[in-house]
Every structure is written in structure tokens, then in C-alpha cells.
Known about the structure:
Layout: E1 2-5, E2 11-12, H1 26-38, E3 43-46, H2 57-60, E4 63-64, H3 67-75, E5 82-89, H4 95-108, E6 113-118, H5 123-129, H6 136-150, E7 158-159, E8 164-165, E9 181-185, H7 188-197, E10 200-203, H8 208-219, H9 222-225, E11 232-235, H10 247-259, E12 264-267, H11 274-287
Parallel strand pairs: 1-12, 3-5, 5-6, 6-9, 9-10, 10-11, 11-12
Antiparallel strand pairs: 2-4, 7-8
Helix pairs in contact: 1-11, 3-4, 4-6
Amino acid sequence: MRLGIVTPVLTRLPRAHARWEADAGIDEVERVVRAAERLGYEFATCSEHVAIPTAVAATRGATYWDPLATFGYLAARTTTIRLATFVLVLGYHHPLAIAKRYGTLDRVCAGRLILGVGVGSLEEEFALLGAAFAGRGERGDDALRALRAAFGEPTPRYAGTHYRFDDFVVDPCGVQRDVPLWVGGRTGRSLRRAVALADGWAPFALRPDDVARLVAAARATAAWSRRTAPLEVVLQPAPPLDPLDAPGPTQDTLAAHRDAGATALALRFRHRSPEHYVEQLEALQTLV
Length: 288
């Protein structure tokens, strides 16, 4: 399994972040991401929300750094670690807007972008942005097809059920013609979407046995048999790992997710400072 990190500070979920993160800034983020790069971790993540309703902030969290600005900064200070949106909400953007903005980022970071995307679930945020909530699944499917056609293409063309474009120039465009597309979610529907239209499935809040059951069912489908490349399964172990003080349970967690079919892990750690976070990164590498 390849290993990446759910970058601290950038997203602060209730009861899932350390106290120091509340006052941290880009310097601490850079320190952690550069350490992860030095240690061979494959990717760092940043998730998207524009605005969280106050009524749900206590459950969903209120802090979400913007991926485009954050990754633009980190791209200039790293050389090998990949930058994974985890995830962008497809319904908030026209596919060509993603292709242009994140294609520019892909050029800035020399082809290290991973586009993690999802159809979204926060109806109030859709309404705020003037985006349609109903039918977002079908619209998201078409957006994925449009992104596949457009990313890395200076003169993209696409004609689908919801999006159509031709006779436009997108310059600059992405370095990667086949940018990795990961689909987020936690349902069988999100997995079917990933199997049919993407390179990977990146679910959240699922136990390893649930993942194994869903993947086994997907393997039996005609869509899986039509794939020409293996499906990435990118899992987020919970609770956060503690390789320094609990190496045995950490190894058990890694093994359980490997056995469930994970090809990569997006990791969270227990930590009390940026320095301690880096120590946890180092400790995990000694275990694996």
C-alpha cells in the first residue's frame, strides 16, 4: 500500500484535530508536508467547502482551506509529493473551470495533481452557491466524463447529457492528459461511479469489513470487467494512528485495511505539535 496524509490544519473536524492546529498557519502546514515528502509519503490532501452553515459546523467542522490557493503555495515548496484534492464538489464548478484552474495548478506542480471529486451532500451550500442539488449524481457523472475529455487538452471538445463545449481554447492546460480521478463518498453508488468513470475510490467513515463487502460486490459487475486498469482503493483509517506509543495496534490497522483491498491509505495521526506530527510520520515509516 502507498501512504499519504490527510494534511493537518487544513481541515479541522470536531474531536479529530489537535489543539495546536487552531492557531497554526501555512508555515506549519509546509513543515509537515515537506517532512512527509522527505520520508516518502506519496500524497497530501486538501478538501473543499466554500461555506458551512452554522447549524452543522459542530458536526462537520468549520475550517476548510481552499485547495487551489493552498496547493499553489505547497507546489512551490515541494518537488515530489502529490497534491490530492480530497475532495472537490463537482456540482460547484463547470468542468472547464476545473480543467483550467486545476490544470494550471498541475502545470505549476509539474504534473503532481490528483483530482479527488465527489457529488456533495450539503444542500444548504448548494443553495448558497446557486447550484442544483437535485440530480447532482447524474450531473456529477457527466462532469467526470467531461473532465476526462478536457483535462490536459488545449482545445477540449465534449458533448454529454449536461455539459457541452467546443471551439474554446483552455491555455494553460494540465500537464497530465490522464490526471488521476478519485471518487469520494461512502456508498455503493460512489463505488459504482468510480468503477465506471474514474481511477480510484476514496471513501470515508467506512470500516474495513464494509469496504471489503462493497468491493467484492463491485467486482462481480459488468462495469468492473470492462475496466482496463486496476481500481485504486484509497482508505482513511480511523481512529487516528499512534505509531509512536501504539505500534502494535497501528500495524493491525494497516493490515486490516490492506486485507480489505486498500491500495493506498490517507492517514491521520495522534499529535500534539507539528514536531510530534513529524515524529509520528517517522515512526510509521519504521513500522512499514
